[in-house]
Amino acid sequence: MPASPFHFLRIRIMAFSLTTSCFVARSAPRRVPRAILATVVASAMVSTSALLVAADVLAAQTAPTHGVRPRRLVIRGAIVVEGNGTPAEGPKDIIIEGNRITQIVGIDPAAIRNGTARRPAADVEIDASGKYVVPGLINLHGHVQDERAGQAQPLEYQFKLWLGMGVTTVRDVSSETPKTLQLRARSLAGEVMAPRFYVYARYAYMPVPRNEVEARQRVRDLKTQGVDGLKLFGMDKDVYGPVLDEAKKQGLRVAHHMAVDETNALDAAANGLTSLEHWYGVPDAAIPDGVQQFPSNFNYADEGMRFRLAGRLWREAEPARLQEVLKAMVKGGVAWNPTLDIYEASRDLQRAETQPWYAQYLHPTLEKYFKPDLSNHGSYFANWSSTDEAFWKENYRIWFGAVRDFERLGGVVGAGEDAGFIYQVYGFGLIRELELHQEAGFPTLKVLQHATANNALILGQQENLGRVRPGYLADLVVLNGNPLEDLKVFYPPRADAAAGPGGGVAWTIKDGIPYDAQRLLREVRELVSTAKRGSSR
Ligand SMILES: [Zn+2]
Fold this sequence. Notes:
TIM Barrel, 8-stranded mixed β-sheet, hydrolase activity, acting on carbon-nitrogen (but not peptide) bonds, Amidohydro-rel, Putative hydrolase, Metal-dep_hydrolase_composite, Metal_Hydrolase
């Protein structure tokens, strides 16, 4: 929607007032009485486009109000990383009307310097000079968690961490479906400070479907509930094809936690799975004997044993076969969301246990949940050894190579964190995931593409999300630094860091609503310290 002529004139008046005063309050009134407008109409130069104003008026614009969607927001002078893997470009002005990006205008830096740049008008603006803008991050593997091991945990904690680190969309892959469906609606309506949700419900709830008829019925039941997709665990071959076929018929996408099961990556490829979560089923499909060399007392239900032996799985994949498996996945249209971060404690337990963020950002419920305890999923470290870590380091090396080869062969790599387990904290986990994609050998432009355009493609939202592009939903992150140089700019700035305080997210914009990211993170710190005081009483 173009700005009205009155809108343009209001801005000219602000410009006049600027010339008579050195100091202009950020809150300078934007509404001008009609009578004054009428007198200005006679004298104002109205030949220029209503959308463009001279640079001298910029300081008179209003800063965003945290959590309030302006009618027209302009992010000024940003270096833009579009999200599709193309190089950074700027400075640019990004125009957002309502919840959509409507225009992106390249600015001549020389014209900015000498004050002749024509800039789009705005109700509200963010000065992004010296800052980078990237698409809102999509967390492809999240779990909405309002409790850990029976202890209540505030959703506000999780949501503010996500938004505070630039996560604007979460694909929820199994939680309490009815609750998360409500949150999805409330987030869309702007009633809750939270990312967008895509709800992938657990397929195998009790009673677990026993045959093709029951399997297809379960998929239809979930469709009736209004979910966006399915989350599979531990599938057998006889129902796998029918479930994926029925899901396709019902317009549901499918994320499969691919463990060591009867079905592996080749079955996923043959039946058109949407995304393979984690990894086990990839090397498992490339073992010449068809089964890993387990010790005779191996029990898959024993988490300590399972994670220990998982650290010896990639080395058993036969390299030539592995390439065939990766090719089959590409041909079958299966995307891969490796969730590298969620296994990192296995290769370096001390790092996991002593992350500097914990002091201020680790909620006591999560702290308790992460401690070794066989009743909590993923806390299997009671007897973790240097030998386990050495195997896991080798495991990662082969895994990194496989993910790189998969993309080189044409595969779509996504990015998700799976936080709330194994020493990964919401938001921090996704940024760590990005760092691990870089460690795997991907250039940072591709890493950011994994978490934006690729994830949007996997969600089937490639025309709405994951790019800084006119027509797309206004989900954006304004960063105090260059993420192509340092992905750590997404983390909260740390005064005590050896590498310096870092940048941090300045603004997270979700659905056209700007959030002051550092304010959200401050509120998380307050929430955590209050909870700690409560739990120590
Ligand atoms: Zn998970």
